[in-house]
Amino acid sequence: MIDDEPLVNAKQDKLGFRAIADNLASAFLQNDLSRGFVVGVEGAWGSGKSSLVNMALDELEKRQGGPKVIRFAPWLVGSRNELLAQLFADLEPVVLETLPEREKDDTKKILERYAQASSSIAALADLAELAGAPYAGFVAKFLRKSGDKAAELSETSLGELNEKLRGKLELLNRPIVIFVDDLDRLEPSEVAEVLRLVKAVADFPNVAYILAYDLDVIAASVQTALQIPNGKSYLEKVVQASFKVPNAMSFDLRNWLKAEMSKLLNGAKMEAGVESRLEGVYHQWCNEFLETPRDVVRVVNSLKLNFVPVRDKVDPGDMVFLHLVRSKNHNLFNWIERYVSTLSGIGDWGYVAPGADRRFGRELLEVIDKSGEEEIRFIFDLQSHLPGLNRISLTQERNEFKVFSLSSADELKAFMREQRLASPSHFSYYFSFSSPSGNLDDSYVDQFLITCEQQPEKALASFRKLINSQRPQGGRLAEVLIDRIVGLSANISANQVAGLFQVMGEAIDELVPFAKTNSGYVEFLKGNRREIFGLIDQIEVKEARTKTLQNLFTTAKSFAWLASIIRETTFAHGTVGTKGEPKESWLLSEDEFEICKKLFVTRLTETPPAELLNVPHFLKLMFAWYQLGDTDGPRTWIRDQTERDEDFIKVLGAMTSWSESSPGGVNYNIRPETLNSFFEGVNGVKKRLKRITLDNTIAPDVRSAAQKHLDEIEEWPNESGKSDSAL
Question: Residue limits of the KAP NTPase domain (predicted)?
C-alpha cells in the first residue's frame, strides 16, 4: 500500500509543491519570530497541507538561524484535559536545548509548574482568561465548583508564572515553531480547547504557531462547541495570518496515478486497444474524480487490493475507472455493480424485468447528480464502459431515460472477449477477488476448446462432468461453459468448432433435463447465430463446413439439438411459416440444408424407436420431421409405434407441449394441432381414449393415464387449431 502519511521533505514531492514550500518558508522568516504569532494553513482533507508545511519546515530548519520545530498532534492526546500538559512536555526539551546553560535549571522548574497547573481544564481556562479569551471564565468557574486542585491556583500566581516564562523565552538563541496538525480530526469540543490553548500562549516571545486545518470544518466545530453564530470570526481572533494550499494540478495527479498503475501492471504487455482504453480513462475520469493527493493514494491502494489479484482476468482501464468512481461516488459504484449484474441476466435470457430500463435510468441520473450538458457528457463518457445507456432518450423527458438498450444480447460478446466490466462472464472479478462459485475462468474455457480440437473424447468426458456439476445458483456448470464459448465465438478456430460439435453432438441433450428453461425450452438448443450452433460461421472453407455438418448429422446422438437446428433453418428459409429471412442472413445455405435434411430423416428412420421416444422435447423432434414436407413419414412412424394401447398412451404422454394463455400461466399437456398432425385427429384420439378407459383388460395405470388425457381434451375451449407457432 502507498503510505498515506504526509511528506517530510521535498525529495518525495510529486505535485510541484517544493517551490511553494520554499516561498512559504521565506515568508515565514520575514516575520519577527521574537514576538510570536499564529499562522493558519488552510486546505481540504487530503489536499496536501501537512506535506506542504512539512516541506516548508524542513527548509526553515536548514536555513541559517532558522527555528527549531515541534510537531504537536493534539488528536493523539488521550484527554483534552491533558492538552496543555502535553504541549509543555513537548516544548521543554527544545526550550532547554536553545537556552544558555545558566538558565536551564530555573526554566525547567517553571515549565514543570505549567505542566502541573494544566492537569485540568480549569487551569487552562484560567490561563485563557488572563490572555483575554472569551467564555473561558465560565469554564473556570464551573471547574472550581468541582473542587479541582488546579482551581486553587490564583490568578496572581498564574500571572507570575507567565511573566517568568516569558522572560526565559526571550533568552532563546533560536526561535521555536510549533506545528499543530490535523485540527480537523478532533471533536468540536477538542477543537475549541486547542484554539483556546493557542490563544492563551500565542504571545510568548520566540514561539510561533502554524495550524493546519480545513477552514469549513474547523469553523463548524467552533460554532458547535462554543454555541456562537460565526466560527470563522472567532478563528480570526486566534490566527493572525493564513495561507490556502493551492489545488494540485490535474496533470500532476493524473501522472502520479499513471506511474503507480504502471507499477501494478508489472510490465505486462497490453494490446493496442486495451492500452488506448486505459489512456482514455486517465483523461476522461481523473479530472472528474481526482482533486487531492489523498484521492490518488486512496485509488492506488484500492487498486492494489482489488486489481492485482485478478489483473489477468479484467480490463485495466475499466478497473481504474471503477475505483476512481468508488473513491468519490459510492452510490454510483453500487449502481454500476447492480447494472452489470443485471446485464448478465440479459446474456442469459435476452430481456430484463418490465420497467427496469426506466427505473435504473432514473436511479443513474440521481446518483450522478448533474444536469444539462454536463449530465449528457457524463452519460456519453459512461457509455465507453457500460453498454445500453440510451443517450438519445436522455434528450427527451428525464423520466424517460432508459438503460439496458442493447440491440441484442450479442452486443455483450465483445465485452466478454475483452474481459470488460460489462462482461457477464467477468463482471464479478471487478467486485471481488475471484468469480463467484458456479463460474469457469477463461483458462478453463480456452483449454476445453483446445482439447476439443486435439482430444475430443477427453473433452467429452470433461463436458459430462460439468453436466453433473450443480451450481449454487441453479443449473449446471455445462451451461456456463456453453455460454462462455458463445461469448468467445470470434476467437474460436474452425478446427476447434469441428471438435466442439463432435462433443456437443454426443452429449448436449444430456444437459437438457437439468438446464434453466425459457418458456419451457432451453435456449442453447436453438440452431441460430446467438447459440452454440452459430459457431458454424467460424468455419469459412466450404469443404470444411460440409464435412463438419455431415459428421454432426451422421453421428450425433443429441437428436433434440439436431431437431432444433432443422426447425430453425426451416423457418429461416421460409419452408414453414409466413415468410423466411433474407438469404444473406441464412446460417446454412440451400445446399448445406439439403445435406442436413437428408441425413436427419435417414437417422430418424434408422434409429430404434425406444431411443427416439427418450429424446428431450420429443414433440419438437416430430414437428421438425413433419415440417420438412415429409408429413407421411412421422405419421407412419407414430402409427407403427402406437398399435398397442399401452404404447399409444406412452407416445401420447411424450408429445406434450407447454403454453401460456394468461399472466397466471395455464399449461396444456397436449394440443389439438398435435393430434391433428400425427394422429387421427382430436375426435379419433378421444374415441380411443374412451375405449381404453372402459376396457378392464387393460392395466389400471394405463387406463388412469388415458382418463387424464381425456379429461384434458374435454376441457379444451375448442377442438381445432392447427397453428404451430407456439411449439
Answer: 18-304
Q: Report the distance separating Cα 521 and Cα 397, nearest Å.
A: 39
What's the CA angle centered on 656, arms 651 and 657, to 5 degrees? Answer: 150
User: What is the CATH number that goes with domain 35-244?
Assistant: 3.40.50
- DSSP readout, 72-97? E-GGGSS-GGGHHHHHHHHHHHHHHH
Residue 329 — very low, low, confident or very high, per pLDDT cuts 50/70/90? very high
- Which residue, among 651, 649, 596, has the nearest Cα to 625 in the 3D structure? 596
d(CA 613, CA 68) in angstroms, rounded, equals 95
* Cell numbers standing for residue 702: 394405463
Contact 120/150 with Cβ under 8 angstroms? yes
Give the contacts of 7 (CB within 8 A, at least 6 positions apart): 13, 48, 51, 54, 55
Q: How far apart are CA 81 and CA 118, in angstroms?
A: 7
Question: pLDDT tens digits, residue range 452-480?
Answer: 999 999 999 999 999 999 988 888 999 99
For the chain, the maximum distance between any two Cα atoms, rounded to a whole number of angstroms, is: 129
Q: Which of 658, 667, 674 is nearest to 721 (CA)?
A: 674
Least Cα distance to 463 among 479, 475, 439 occurs for 479
Q: How far apart are CA 528 and CA 523, in angstroms?
A: 10
pLDDT > 90: percent of the chain = 49
Helix or strand or coil: residue 669?
coil
Confidence of residue 53 (pLDDT cuts 50, 70, 90): confident
pTM score, two decimals? Answer: 0.59
Q: What is the distance of C-alpha 11 from the center of its chain?
A: 37
Count of helix runs (H) and strand runs (E) in the chain: 33, 5
Q: Kindly state the cell numbers that stand for 49.
A: 497541507
The residue ranges of every structural domain in the chain are 35-244, 253-430, 463-641
Contacts of 604 (CB under 8 A, 6+ apart): 559, 612, 621, 625, 633, 637
DSSP 3-state assignment of 398?
A: helix
The residue-averaged pLDDT of 492-519 equals 91
Distance, CA of 725 to CA of 446 (rounded, Å): 38
What is the residue type of 346?
Answer: I
Q: Distance between CA 274 and CA 278 in Å, rounded?
A: 6
What is the spatial distance between Cα 247 and Cα 17, in angstroms, rounded to a whole number?
10
User: How far apart (Å, rounded) are the C-alpha atoms in residues 195 and 236?
Assistant: 11
* Strands annotated E in 231-390: 241-244
C-alpha 243/C-alpha 229 separation (Å) is 24
**What residues have CB less than 8 Å from 82, skipping those under 6 apart?**
118, 119
In this predicted structure, what is the pLDDT of residue 399?
66
Sheet with 207-213, strands from edge to edge, namely 68-72, 176-180, 207-213, 38-42, 241-244
Distances (CA, A) of 523 to 343, 355, 365, 575: 17, 24, 34, 22
* Grid coordinates given for 628: 420438412
69 Rama class: left (phi>0) / alpha (psi -120 to 50) / beta: beta
- Residue type (1 letter), 606: E
Burial of residue 213 (number of CB atoms within 10 Å: 0-12, 13-18, 19+): buried
**Whole-number pLDDT of residue 441:** 74
Q: Which helix (H) or strand (E) holds 163?
A: helix 155-169
* Cβ–Cβ < 8 Å for 158, 127: yes
- Between CA 665 and CA 658 the distance in angstroms is 10
Burial class (CB in 10 A: 0-12, 13-18, 19+), 562: buried
